[in-house]
Amino acid sequence: MAKTKEAEGFTPTGVVYQSTELPEPTSKSHKDLNLSKDDLLGLYRVMYRQRRFEERAMQMYQKGKFGGFLHLYMGQEAVSTGAVTVLNDDDDIITAYRDHGFGLVRGVSSKVGMAELYGKATGCSRGKGGSMHFFNTDEHYWGGHAIVGAHIPLGAGIAFANAYREEKRVTMCFLGDGAVDQGSFHETLNLAKLWNLPVIFVVENNGYAMGTATKRHTSTEIFKRARAYDMKNKVVNGMDLFSVIEDFREVVDEVREDPQPYLLEVRTYRYRGHSMSDPANYRTDDEMKEFQDIDPIERLKTYISRHKIANKDKIQEITDDIEQEILDAIDYAENSDFPPEEDLYKDVYVEDDFPFLT
Questions:
Q1: What is the pTM of this model?
Q2: Could you report the per-residue pLDDT of 1-37, keeping only the tens digit for each?
Q3: Among 66, 137, 219, 281, which one is most buried in terms of CB atoms within 10 A?
Q4: Inter-axis angle of helices 77-86 and 37-62, nearest 10
């Protein structure tokens, strides 16, 4: 991974976003955010696990170990990590198809996640979901969803259920910048505001909807869409973990105490193409380097070193542990069984006597 810029306020000047800028990173320290030294090392471990899991998954895909779609989250790990840091264990998360990171931070182990990619019965969706359908409902992770924008009403529905039961739970519904032009996005925001649902819509604006830059597919800055529904909104620097934690915590606390929908535009960046078939020729090497220079994992690593929270040996120990964990996950996936044929229609239809099965 690339080294981060020394200047704390460095931000890319690329042209992928409407405003062409990221918000300045927060100046707050880990102590200001009530994070201990152990917390920081744990957060580094969580972020590095996501990165290394996907790097190995990409290698296995290229070797033909599994097929289908593979949408990688590399570069966006501060968003998933920061979100889970500020949410309660029983708060709800739902996202689109770039979902590995959220699975790994919401209880899907590296072994179970890799097995799902391989289509094995030991996977988190029993091998039937693959890359786009990581789920862990036991820990309130309601999965990745393949149809662009289709999960947004589901996120509002989860929040509606929580409000109906008078539970002080918050739902975070994550979507990409390409989904903001779907009708389901606008219909859902309208009803969410009308009913004051405790849901936070988080747009992970990684600069591109497939291969189309945000400024070319959206007529105005994304956070401004909230104004049409009189909804509170904010822009967040998604390349800085501390910024994500600070801003997300403030919004989560507000929504929990005063139920209402909120729209967050989190400006982040993906280092790979839209999927494995996309060489990402629509962007320049200079643009890529600008964002790699503020890589969220390297930024945290630099902070840990600079503040003497851990020495190089300790950091290396963490990376070595994660490396072995991912290698073990690959072995686990390769040695697991595929689902049996009799499970073909299992968990597909609610009715046992559905006509198609009889």
A1: 0.92
A2: 444 443 343 455 555 666 557 888 999 999 999 999 9
A3: 66
A4: 140
